[in-house]
């Protein structure tokens, strides 16, 4: 466990350095960017170590893994983000531990989350997940609403009891016009975010960037980066 702690500490320091350098290069304050460590596929013991090392925000993408992990870490002061595709039959569980749901991408999910949040007496922050490669009216292969669907979903979240509209999330597309161009993708997200903030000034969160492209995200104004592999190591299985 001591070795794992040192490994995580070294990886965290390297990621911290990358974020600080990216902020400096972009003329931004380090405090403008929040690191979220994506702990999916890794055990709760790693979450404990990360907490000891100062991490306060973690993310998971599958409820069946996240629910028991959050339960075994309930004494730690952590902000839990849910970043995976979310089925409506899981919202009751997710609403019980998630402080932020980053993958809101359809109206049916908004109403289910709202009902679950009200029942659980919780008030999760919701981010609209944008699929930059999705055609109008369609959803992305890995979830997300097409850019022209953001406004309607944002209005639905803002008007739903128990939910707070936080902003936007995206994953750089692997296919389509933005494939291999994460910075262009994140610049597009920035435009969508400024349009959103015209109607919802408090919806300032822009969650973009992962291990491979966090510098591009910071350059394009991301407020939150979601980093898994670079902190925890290459995942043993797809997740
Ligand atoms: C797994 C995951 C990440 C982290 O990806 P890494 O490449 O391991 O940093 C970020 N966002 C989402 C939505 C993920 O599913």
Automatic annotation (TrEMBL):
Pyridoxal 5'-phosphate (PLP)-binding protein, which is involved in PLP homeostasis. GO terms for molecular function: pyridoxal phosphate binding. It comes from the Bacteria. This is Pyridoxal phosphate homeostasis protein. It comes from Streptomyces paludis. Keywords: Pyridoxal phosphate. Residues 11-236 form the Alanine racemase N-terminal domain. Its cofactor is pyridoxal 5'-phosphate.
